[in-house]
Amino acid sequence: MKNKYIYSLVLAGSLIITSSCKDYLDYQPQGLLSSDNIKSASAAESLVTAAYAGIGNDEMIGPMTSMWVYGSVRSDDAYKGGGGVSDVAEIDFYEHYNLTRPDLTFMHPYTWENFYKAISRANAALASLNAVNETEFPLKKTREAEMRFLRGHSHFMLKMLFKNIPYITETMSSEDILKESNVKYKNDELWNKIGEDFQFAIDNLPQKQDQVGRANKLSAASYLAKLRLYQAYEQDDNHKVTNINKTRLQEVVTLTQQVISSGQYSLQPDFAENFIAETENGPESIFAIQYSINDGTAAGRLSYVTGLNYPHGAPQYGCCGFHQPSQNLANAYKTGSDGLPLFDTFNDKNVDFNTETVDPRVDHTIGIDGHPYKYDATKPFSNSWIRDPGVYGFFHTMKEQQLATSASYHKEGPFIGTSKNIDIIRYDDVLLMQAEAYIELGQQALALPLINQIRRRAAASTGRLKKTDGTLPSKYNIKEYASGWTQDYARKALQWERRLEFATESPRFFDLVRWGIAEKTLNAYLDKEKTRRQFLATAKFTAGRDEYLPIPQREISFTKGLYKQNPGF
Description:
mainly alpha, 20 helices
């Protein structure tokens, strides 16, 4: 494994970049390149397996699975954390929306590269599948659909992050790839190109697969619904939302209903079960990146992408205290006497967990002094575990952690990896996507029971949160929505529910951009947060620029200006 070498470079904060655009756009798995050895069913199947591996081939550098840097730290959910602002300083630049620097070298440029490597793996598999017939390989059409799904996933993620990207298929030669501009397609056209892959997957995949981890018809329908929901919020060239397309919203309703009415997926009884390895691939997981441990390989196939984010001072962990929830997020979990969120006053003062009532999801999401750590009441979280409380406060991220006693946990030097799968789409997301579409269609009454399903599950998810004496660590009070369910109120509730349900999992920033409220929300957050956290004194979100990451300059240089930079950079 190369993990130790790569991780030392992370902490050093520097990387020597030796790859080029052509290297990864034309990348194929080593040992499987020649046209002579891919024209068989066994070769095609091997390349399919390699493509599945490709979508999870990230580390702390160039994240592809967990978007905690791009979606959580860039939002109002979390601070960078770690040992002060200079510790992996590049993440601090993302938090400050300071991305015009020429020395941004190892985070999003590597994410760009990693996703295009994944696309090339999918395309290599598709090229191999094109060379065999269904008599030789009866699963040909199914595997083609799986590869189209994986390719759609990688293009979707790139578009969500960068907006303007080159679209690469298996039919393109190396020369074609080098001529493919990142602005060839208009915004809506590019969504449709990516959507074609998911539609092909819907049309050609079975509803269930024999092997865990393979895409199926319903995971493709869920992903296409997600794409159509993003596409519905139409943006101009400067990223401003100018219209919400009702036809796209109706497609979201139809696609999500296909998943919901199938009965194949459901909410886990306890919210906690989405975040522990022992219950992964449960009824709520629609598509997940699969990892393994003790699988016969030297160190297993582990995820290290959140390996910096464990408690720094706890003896069983020791590194490195990144990704600390914000005070704003902690305050957002407060509830009133009616058990509902305090939409307008939640951030007036900091939450007191001893006296105020809160949503139970706070203790699934945030490590709080004296509260059970990761559902182990014998190991309460301690403020002494925080690395730099003077800068980032005392809260700690929880969802992405696994106990050191978990069979999924592996420590390599100071760094931590786990075999816990990373969910890309869950059933709770499908419910809330449908609810959002109904609300924007003016059918908010149909959204109410969907959102209340999520809140009922949250209210029931307290069993694993108890302390050793059987008492609960916080005063929980969460109720369902009922009266006053206008479209405006429903929209506010939906946006709040998405934040609390997926807090620190990364969707927050991308939701704000999609809704067209990123500038308003994030600058209001920063105005208040600057009075609490001095390190944010110069942070400011600039509309028309900061909604997306800059196209890596090395790609623009390599293509001699064929790739165009995003506005404002």
